[in-house]
Amino acid sequence: MSRFSIQRHYATMQPLIQLGQEIRGRGHLDGKLVELVLMRCSQINGCAFCLDMHSKDARAAGETEQRLYLLSAWRETALYSESEQAALALAEELTELPSHESVSDALYERVREHFEEAAVVDLVLLIGMINTWNRLNIAARTVGGNYKPVAHH
């Protein structure tokens, strides 16, 4: 049972909603990559609502079931491109923040090999945004399983 309704406080959530729309709207990041990053962070944080939402949005955007099934073990498969692997590594480090030295120069350079600086900024914002959503939904005890995806073009 939820503690508070995210929907009831929708106006308060507008800055996060707008940030997500802006990141997607700039087009620096592929839509499928966005969903993979959102899913991976939500897996780490254990946010059922966000996992439900982003798995459905990923499928609606054309992502394959197999890639979604293997996402938590992305290092052990050849299903993800080098740029996706770099983005997923960054997502994991920024979500877990194992130390104040997270996001080593080597990881940053790996990411920069695949993404322009503006895309890196959007990727970092995306990771921060989903971590905030995960924490909001976990604190609210938002129940997952009932999300309906929006139509993708």
Automatic annotation (TrEMBL):
Entries under SUPFAM superfamilies matching the protein: AhpD-like (SSF69118)
Boundaries of every Carboxymuconolactone decarboxylase-like domain copy: 14-93
Coiled coil segments of this chain: none
Pfam short name (any one): CMD
PANTHER family: 4-CARBOXYMUCONOLACTONE DECARBOXYLASE FAMILY PROTEIN (AFU_ORTHOLOGUE AFUA_6G11590), CYTOPLASMIC PROTEIN
Protein name: Carboxymuconolactone decarboxylase family protein
Organism of this sequence: Rhodanobacter hydrolyticus
Organism lineage: Bacteria, Pseudomonadati, Pseudomonadota, Gammaproteobacteria, Lysobacterales
